[in-house]
Specification:
Blueprint: E1 3-5, H1 19-33, E2 43-48, E3 51-57, H2 60-63, H3 70-82, E4 91-96, H4 100-108, E5 113-118, E6 143-146, H5 150-165
């Protein structure tokens, strides 16, 4: 696993050449996260060849489907759009570090890169609480880049939970 962490409180690693592009596509994922309504504001986009092939935002509350996480919704749409469940060469951008269910779906879909915003110490499966992106698995492990636009992604979640507490 290759990881680039842009958190200011850590030793900064050299950002990859595509850091500006990652920030731009993470902005699209943030826009997706604002569509969640009563659900936790998480958004995801899947990009291949500089085009979005899948979009998703959390829809568990709206659909009653416990698997309707932003990443799963985006993976389903990307598979439909591309005509294949194999998403080699694609990058998934998500506003929150994926949970174990979403992390495994990302690995299974053969996505080449995972870029996320906010870290999730409670259930993040890209190194915060768990790490499913480890070498030696039978599936190709995507490159993982975390902490892109972290403050913006974290603020969206913090604001949501602050409002939810007052209900």
């Amino acid at each position: 696993m290759t990881s680039t962490d842009s958190r200011p409180d850590k030793d900064r690693k050299r950002l990859p050449a595509h850091a500006d592009r990652d920030r731009r596509w993470l902005s699209a994922a943030l826009a997706e996260a604002t569509k969640t309504g009563a659900d936790v504001p998480v958004g995801a986009v899947i990009v291949r060849d500089e085009a979005i092939v899948g979009r998703g935002h959390n829809q568990r509350e709206a659909t009653g489907d416990p698997s309707a996480h932003a990443e799963i919704v985006a993976l389903r749409q990307a598979a439909q759009e591309t005509g294949s469940w194999r998403l080699n060469g694609a990058t998934i951008y998500t506003t929150l570090e994926p949970c174990p269910m979403c992390a495994e779906a990302i690995i299974q879909s053969r996505v080449s890169r995972l870029v996320f915003g906010a870290y999730d110490p409670a259930s993040g499966a890209a190194g915060s609480a768990f790490n499913l992106f480890i070498p030696g698995r039978i599936f190709p492990i995507p490159e993982v880049v975390g902490g892109i636009r972290e403050a913006d992604c974290q603020r969206l979640l913090t604001d949501f939970f602050r409002r939810s507490k007052g209900r």
